[in-house]
Structures are given as C-alpha cells and as structure tokens.
Automatic annotation (TrEMBL):
This is Copper-translocating P-type ATPase. Coiled coil: none annotated. It is found in: Cell membrane; Endomembrane system. It comes from Kaistella carnis. Its EC number is 3.6.3.-. Residues 184-284 form the P-type ATPase A domain.
Length: 693
C-alpha cells in the first residue's frame, strides 16, 4: 500500500518565494519581474529595448564609419588614392569622438559597472581597448607624433555592436520559453453570478468564484469542474501531448486550452498560488541558481580577464622593447584585449541554464536543483515507487472479503469509504469509485488521523475503524488470512473494527504501457531499475517480473526507503529516488537525485531536486537524457570558448609576425563576436534534445 497514510498532502506556500529577476548573462541581458505585471501580460521589454538600442547604435556607428574609412590616410595609402578634406584630421577626430561616446557607450557603461562591483570582465577589456585607441588617436591630432587609429576604433566598435546585437537576439530565444509561460493566461475571465455571466479582468477573479470556460478558450485559473466535460490541451504546461479528458470534479490548470465542451469551473488558485505561477517561480529560481559548472565558468572568465590585461600590457611592452613603432605595439595590445574578451565564456553556461530550465518546464520537468539535474547523467540506480509511476495508479476494486460474520462485504466497503472520502490517494479513489457504482451512502467520520507509513484510522458511527497495510497486521501480531493475496498484481488493504480484523479489500492497478519502454531506455543507458513499494510480496514480484526490473523491495515503510538508498550508495551507486514528494521526503533528500512524481497541480515538493508534473516513467527517461544533453552542451561551450582564446590570444599578440601574419583589432573583433554567436547558437540547439530516446 504505497504511501497510503498520506491522506492530506501538504500544500507548501510557494508564494513566499519572491519572483526573482532572471539574469541570463553577465551583462544583465534579460530581466523579467513578473510580480509587477498582471498575468496574461508579457514580461518587461527590457531585453527587447536593449536589442533595439544596440541595433540603433550599430547603424549610426556604421554610417559614421564609412566616411572615417574614406578620409583615413592609412586606408587611402592602402587602396592607393588621395582624398583629403581641409582639416582632415579634425574631421576624423569629430566623427571618431561621436563613434567613441555614442557607439562605445554600452561598453563604457558596462566597464564602470564592473569596476564598481570589483569584477572586471568583458566590458573592462572592450572599453580599455577602444579608449586606448581613441585617446591615442586624439593625441596625434593635437600634436603627438604618430598615426591616428580612428578607422580601427570605428570598425572595432561597429563589429562589437553587431556582435552583441546578434548574440542578444539569440539570448532572447532562451527567455521566450519562459515569457511564453507568462503569457499563457488570458487577460479576462467569464465569471458566473446568479446565472449571469460577466467579463472581468483576470486579477479580479477570486478563490471560489465560478467561471465559464467556452470552447477553444484558455482556462483563466486553477479550479475544479462543477459542470460540463471536455478535452483540455495541457501540452504547454505538463508536456502531455494528447488532450486530456476532464469531467465533473476533475481539476483543471490555468493556461490549458479547452476543447469543444463548455465548462463551469470553481476557482481554487489564482495569482501567485496558481500552478503556472509556481512553475514560473521555480524556473526563475533554477535559472538564477548557480551549479558547479557555472561557478567554474565564472572563475575561468574572471581569470581570463586578468590574464588578458596582463598579456595586453605585456604585449605593448615587449614590442616597444623590440624597437617597433608605438602604433604597431598599441595595435597588438588592443587586439589582444578584444580577442581575449571572455564574452563567449561568460555566456557559455548561463545560456544553457536558461534554455534547459525553461524548455524542461514546458515538457513537465520542473528543475529545483541545477546541480542535481546536471549530475543526473551519473545515475547508476533508479529506485522507483510503484503506485502511480510504474503503474497507472488507477485502482479498481477486484475483491471484497469479510472475515467476521458481523460485517457484510457491503458494510466493510461502506465503513471504509468514510475514511477514504477526503483522500486523493489512488487506493482511496478506487474504493470511492466502487462505492459510487454500488450507490452506497458514505457515513461521516470523526478524529481522523494517519498511522505513519501503515494506514489511517477514524471514528465512524461510534466504532474505531482502521484501514491498514499488511505490515500493520504483522506488527500487531494479527494473522493475515491465507487467501488474502492472489498471484495477480493486486494491492490489499485490511479493515479493522475496534482492533479486530473485519475483512479486506483487494484492488488491481494496471501497469502503465509506457513503463516497459522507459525501463528499456534505462537499461540501454546502463541504469539499474529497482522498485521499493509498501505493497505485498506477491504484487511487487508480479510487477517486477512483468516489467523486467533488476530487483524489488516489498512491504517497505517510508523510513525504510532511506536505508535502501543508503545501502545502495554505500555500494558506490549514484542513486535517483522517485516518490510523491511527501511520504518519501526522507528518501528523496538522501538520494543523489530526488525526483518527485505524480505531483499534478501540486508542485510543492520541497525535498525533491526535480519535479515531474506527470507520473509517466518515460518523463524520467527524458529527464536523464536531457540532463546528459545539457551537460554536454555546457562542456562543448566551455571548450569552444576557452579553446578559441588559447589559439587566438597568441595570434593577436603577434607570434606569427615574422611569417607575415598580423591580426588587426577589427578582424579580432569579428572572431570574438563569431565565437560568442557560435556559443549562443550551440546552446539554442539544446531545444532539439528534449524528449529524445
């Protein structure tokens, strides 16, 4: 009897968690504070505004760069023409000044922010490079002996601006999935009052209001159907691709799309308490949480900045000591600083984090612990709870037996229904379904309480009624009837009246058709699959053999699951535990990766690292494979970003000068921007990996 004692699942108040601002890259590229926006509206357009700003600055800079190139003496010498204006150097100075302050402003501003925070990085390197170029060139206009650098300055800023513009458009794709979640709620709802229907703003909808959901409309809030039936599309919320049939008393999730039926729904959760808002909060929390990989990336970017500054000034010094002109040495230094910008490195991990977390949420995988998700690739043993995961959790009563002549089978069922009427557990639902079929009136109860890990009890019509597992009977030295268990995969619960066994109820739970396919995927990936269930030995054995599991543990209490996890870990296994997030909390906390399954609209599984909205075991397979794909993308991006710098910095410093190869700042900027764009595009490719087999 899996977790049968948990009749009233705790609903954790996720609204206590502040909706955080999402920072996808080190430059504060994308912030969404949807606390200040009504549901149904997209997040702040901060990111879009920044893209538009970079775009505008790029075009203005490009327009100014053309005359700078045309009037530059160095370019004229290179192409063999002469076209000097009166006061040519002052014209270049004027145009260069506009380019430096207008086009270079985002980098100068970023430099100041980095210095104030004591974390010099990409913006520091770019701003130093363009500032050295600008102030040296300006000095040559006003008397310093040398050649101006304005054409390099202008092309460098133009390339950096277009690189950032393109890269930020790619970054925006990472936030679109989350913005899509935010925008899924309709702006209005149809509230039903005294058979009248009025259209109200979504924020005016209150708990216990009745709302009308017309065919084809989005459901405005979480609730319970009180009239009507329909098929609802929940794919964007739970990852369930097929429309789900919903009837009276079924729960619906705000943001899902109604099919052809008209529904009246009683509101349960609105605003911050809604399922969708909890998902958004979890996604944002996960995106801002740094894992080991991101900390490694941050350290690498920080050290790269210091190394670039050291190599940059070292390059200037070495070329000057070798007797080369100051302009040449300066160009080498500027190129090194541009090439070494740790932009790609700083973006490598945050982009993957943002994309993987948002895309996972759209597929029913809610990540709370980034490190656990990334380490899911190490899982060697997967310990499953049975009911509702490997099996459908859709119990049907197969047998009711009385062992006390004082109680008929109907009376045993009637008394049992009193204890089960408040529960959402699959066993309770199965018993109540049978009661409804037989038109039995459910009696009232008093003093309901759970018997930890073993069942429930309450007073019904003056009698002390207990519904318990086989383990409870063993502990109380009560003999279990010989014919209680059949060879079939049945779950049996025992009914005690005033401490004496009155009878038992057997229920069958159908194995999910997806379970067998999921287990094949696990085994293909060298993951052992075990099952730990509170059910009896016969049932556990039947399910294990049918699915081809590597082993099982029967009649296990929640606290005993912790010992199973510890024993596996002691043998060197990397263990993932699946459970309902409440009863299995100790085991979920002990496991290397805790996966809460079967949570449905209750996403408040505080001890789990990852929450699966559906109970489908194939979602766990998707989780593990997507975790591997995410980790691989991070490694690819880190290797590209660092490998690029290892090769490009020596070239920028001029190590191949004697071979006739000299890398200019503008070309260096092209390569730097290209590196960043490759990292961004590679991260976007992660979206293709979800759901792979």
């Amino acid at each position: 009897m899996d977790n049968h004692d948990e009749h009233e699942k705790k609903k954790t108040d996720h609204s206590k968690m502040d909706h955080s601002k999402m920072d996808m890259s080190k430059k504060d590229h994308s912030k969404m504070d949807h606390d200040s926006i009504p549901m149904g509206k997209e997040g702040h357009d901060h990111h879009q505004m920044m893209i538009a700003d970079f775009k505008k600055r790029f075009w203005v800079t490009l327009v100014l760069t053309i005359p700078i190139l045309v009037f530059s003496p160095m370019i004229q010498t290179f192409f063999g023409y002469e076209f000097l204006l009166p006061g040519n150097s002052y014209v270049l100075f004027g145009l260069g000044t506009i380019v430096y302050f207008y086009g270079g402003w985002p980098f100068l501003k970023g430099f100041w922010s980095e210095i104030k925070s004591g974390s010099p990085g990409m913006m520091t390197l770019i701003s130093m490079a363009i500032s050295v170029a600008y102030f040296y060139s300006s000095a040559t206009v006003f008397g310093l002996k040398g050649v101006d650098f304005f054409w390099e300055l202008a092309t460098l800023i133009a390339v950096m601006l277009i690189g950032h513009w393109i890269e930020m458009k790619s970054v925006l794709g990472a936030s679109k999935a989350l913005q899509l979640l935010v925008s899924m709620m309709p702006a209005e709802a149809h509230r039903v009052t005294d058979n009248n229907v009025e259209d109200i703003k979504l924020e005016d909808l209150l708990k216990d209001d009745v709302m009308l959901v017309k065919p084809g409309e989005k459901v405005p809030a979480d609730g319970i159907i009180i009239e009507g039936s329909s098929y609802l599309n929940e794919s964007m919320l739970t990852g369930e691709s097929k429309p789900v049939k919903k009837d009276k008393q079924d729960k619906v999730i705000g943001g899902s799309v109604n099919g052809n039926g008209s529904l009246k729904v009683k509101v349960e959760h609105t605003g911050k308490d809604s399922y969708l808002n909890k998902v958004i909060t979890m996604v944002e929390e996960a995106q801002k949480t740094k894992s080991k990989m991101q900390n490694l990336s941050d350290k690498a970017a920080k050290w790269l900045t210091y190394i670039a500054l050291l190599i940059g000034f070292g390059t200037l010094t070495v070329w000057l000591l070798l007797g080369f002109p100051f302009v040449f040495a300066l160009e080498r230094m500027v190129t090194v600083m541009v090439i070494a910008c740790p932009h790609a490195l700083g973006l490598a991990i945050p982009l993957v984090v943002a994309i993987s977390t948002a895309v996972s949420a759209q597929n029913g995988l809610l990540i709370r612990n980034r490190t656990a998700f990334e380490e899911s690739r190490k899982i060697s043993v997967l310990l499953f709870d049975k009911t509702g995961t490997l099996t459908k959790g859709d119990f049907g009563v197969t047998r009711i037996e009385s062992v006390d002549k004082s109680f008929s089978t109907e009376e045993i069922l009637r008394l049992s229904s009193a204890l089960e009427q408040s529960s959402e557990h699959p066993i309770a639902i199965g018993i109540l379904k049978k009661v409804k079929e037989d038109n039995i009136t459910i009696p009232t109860l008093q003093n309901f309480k759970a018997i930890t890990g073993k069942g429930v009890e309450a007073n019904v019509e003056g009698k002390d009624i207990k519904i318990v597992s086989p383990g409870f009977l063993k502990d109380e030295k009560i003999n279990i009837p010989e014919d209680a268990f059949s060879d079939a995969a049945e779950t049996v619960v025992f009914v005690l009246v005033d401490g004496k066994l009155a009878g038992y109820i057997a229920l069958a739970d159908e194995i999910r058709p997806e379970s067998a396919d999921a287990i094949k995927i696990f085994k293909k990936n060298n993951i052992k699959v075990l099952m730990a269930t509170g059910d009896n030995e016969q049932t556990a054995k039947a399910v294990s053999e049918k699915l081809g599991l590597d082993g099982y543990f029967a009649e296990v209490l929640p606290e005993e699951k912790v010992k199973i996890v510890k024993d596996l870990q002691a043998k060197g296994e990397f263990v993932a535990m699946t459970g309902d997030g409440v009863n299995d909390a100790p085991a979920l906390a002990q496991a290397n990766v805790g996966i809460a399954v079967g949570s449905g609209t209750d996403v408040a599984a505080e001890t789990a690292d990852i929450i699966l909205v559906n109970s489908n075991p194939q979602d766990i397979a998707n989780l593990i494979l997507f975790g591997k794909a995410t980790y691989n993308k991070m490694i690819q991006n880190l290797l590209w970003a660092t490998g690029y710098n290892v090769v490009a910095i020596p070239l920028a410093a001029g190590v191949l000068y004697t071979s006739g190869f000299v890398l200019g700042p503008a070309i260096g900027a092209v390569f730097m921007s290209l590196s960043t764009i490759i990292v961004a595009v590679n991260a976007q490719l992660l979206k293709r990996k979800i759901g792979m087999k």
